[in-house]
Specification:
About 60% of the residues lie in helices and about 0% in strands. With about 90 residues, the chain is mostly helical.
C-alpha cells in the first residue's frame, strides 16, 4: 500500500498553509514557495509568441491604413462629402 501523497495533494496541502508532514503549520513563505513550484513552467511554452502577435497586428494595421488611404484619396469620397456639405448649405429652413 502506497502511503506517500501525490505531488498535487502535497502542493494543495502546502497552499493551505501547511506541509504534507504537518498540515496545521501555516506560513505565507511556504504558501508562496508552493505557488512558485506549481506554476513555474506555465509560461515556458510561449517563448516568442507575443512578438509574432505584435508583428501580425502591425502588418494588419498597416494594410488597413493603406486601404483607408486609398478609399479616402479616391474621387468618390471627396465628391460625396462635397455634395453633402453643399446640400446642407443650400437647404432652406
Amino acid at each position: 500500500m502506497n502511503t506517500q501523497p501525490t505531488p498535487n495533494a502535497t502542493a494543495a496541502t502546502e497552499l493551505k498553509g501547511g506541509s504534507a508532514a504537518s498540515p496545521t503549520r501555516a506560513t505565507p513563505k511556504r504558501a508562496w514557495a508552493a505557488l512558485r513550484r506549481r506554476f513555474r513552467g506555465v509560461n515556458s511554452g510561449d517563448a516568442g509568441m507575443s512578438t509574432v502577435e505584435y508583428a501580425v497586428g502591425t502588418i494588419a494595421a498597416a494594410a488597413f491604413g493603406a486601404v483607408l488611404y486609398t478609399v479616402v484619396s479616391g474621387d468618390s469620397i471627396p465628391d460625396a462629402l462635397g455634395g453633402i456639405i453643399e446640400q446642407a448649405l443650400n437647404t432652406s429652413v
